[in-house]
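Q: Protein A?
A:
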Amino acid sequence: MAVPGRGDVSALLDKGRRRRRRELSDEQKQEIREAFELFDTDKDLAIDYHELKSAMRALGFDVKKADVLRVLRDYDREGTGKITQADFTEVLTDWMLARDPREEMVKAFKLFDDDETGKVSLRNLRRVARELGENMSDEELRAMIEEFDTDGDGEIHIDDFMAIMMGDT
């Protein structure tokens, strides 16, 4: 057996680091587990087409019929029309790891920017706070905007929002 050269060891270490970085957080793993349990309505530890589609959408994936059918075709080894929790976890782990963080942040920004102005105003922030059941005064909301408003126009632009989400503020 050949002894790996210095470059081979570095490659192995880099691969190990990459693998660790490519793991879901415990919170994400829990979200997948909870989604499966919630949508496994008959509690048979497997989910069918409708349950699978609902669970995937609950986890934030905009899946089409063809996507769900492809997952079922690829993972339904017994031909039951269902996939197991282990298979569901494998599929959703891969999908979550493949998400583009910037794209996800843009989607989140659009939830705030419901009037599609390209910025989050006091009115937008007030609406989101109300929808989340947060009882915040306009003064508190203005203070939030002022903290992250880089150009002083009283609104949060997409770049400001990205900086907030990336922790660059």
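Q: Protein B?
A:
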Amino acid sequence: SGKDPTKVDRSAAYICRQMAKSVVNSGLSARCLVQLSYAIGVAKPLSLFVETYGSEKNGLSVDDITNVLKMEFDCRPGAIAQSLALCEPKYQETAAYCHFGRQAYTKDGIKFFEWENAKDLAKYTSMNSDQVSAALKASNYLAKWVD
């Protein structure tokens, strides 16, 4: 059922989970939903939608949090497969008891449930909107995202 890590039906769900957990765990908002959309034959995601249900923190807006995610995550299919170690043979272990809400671990050098490990985005909690915008402009996000 879609075990190919370059297909975004599964891998994008994993990276969306990691992005949402990273936003909440880093204190950018109390709640977070992340959605991605893709076009067939186009590696870069066409859109990134972030919903925080009004729970943003530290004066950042939803647009600022979206920009943070654009800087910190590469959501092209190959990059997702690499960052979440999806090319390693592990689907027997992940086939039962759901893919989300499990503890990430490493067994025999193979990473399992890597999408449950939130990325530290805490450096953005001390930034304001202008600083986030400046960081976005200085970054290479256009190499990873359609704008």
